Each structure stands twice: as C-alpha cells, then as structure tokens.
Amino acid sequence: MLQNDFFSFTAPQTEGNTVKTTIELNAAHKIFEGHFPQHPIVPGVCMMQMVKEVMESVIGKETNLAIAHNIKFLTIIDPRENKTIQLDYKFSIPEEGKIMIDAQLLNTSTVFFKFKGTFVEV
Q: How many helices (H) and strands (E) does the chain have?
C-alpha cells in the first residue's frame, strides 16, 4: 500500500460514475533514491497502484487487476516539479464483482498517464 507514504489524496469528489481527486506526491520517498537518483520519476507501477487505491477507497472493497485493456505512459512525472496531480476516472460495474475503469493522471496542461482496465473484488 502506497497511500499515506508515497502519496496522499483529498476526499474524492463523485458525480454519478465520475470520480476526481487531488494527489499529493511525497518527493522524499525512498523509491526515488533508486528511480532515479538526482532525477526522480514516478514509476509506472506506482501510477497504477494510486489508481487502484483511490478506487478501492471509493467503492469500499479490495480488488485485484484482472485485465489491463490499455495503458499509456505519456509523460514522466517528476515529483519535484509535479508534487500535486489530479486523478480523474470513470467506472462502471457491468456485473457483480467486476469494476471497469477509465482513468488518467494529469495536471492543468499535461496528461501523464491513461489507463483502461477491469478490476475484480477480492
């Protein structure tokens, strides 16, 4: 779990099936000592984990990733330059226990990451 260590987030704003929250990155986290010293970049797996953890906080259930339909890493996230980013996603529950999600991490002018996939409740 990365929440409250690698990142924190504001209370998600939900409108129908759309969720938005602001993520605050911890630029001093140990991950950045290895990824990469003097030039920190948020690892892709951490981007995925942030989406997962925020989604789980909204639905109140633990999940596992079942299918990653589409993942795009569009621009690096340097936590020193982009300490605060936005997570926006839309979700649907096509059948009991499955959550389909279309998410992106962005700031006012840049989309860093896009993801479409299916999670299943544990």
A: 2, 7
Cis omega (within 30 of 0) on the bond before 119? no
Q: What is the pLDDT of residue 37?
A: 87
CA distances from 122 to 30, 62, 63 (A): 29, 6, 5
pLDDT at residue 9 greater than cutoff 90: yes
7-121 adopts what CATH topology? Thiol Ester Dehydrase; Chain A (3.10.129)
Q: Max Cα separation, the chain?
A: 46
Domain range list for the chain: 7-121
Q: What is the pLDDT of residue 8?
A: 98
pLDDT tens digits along 12-37: 999 999 999 999 999 999 999 999 98
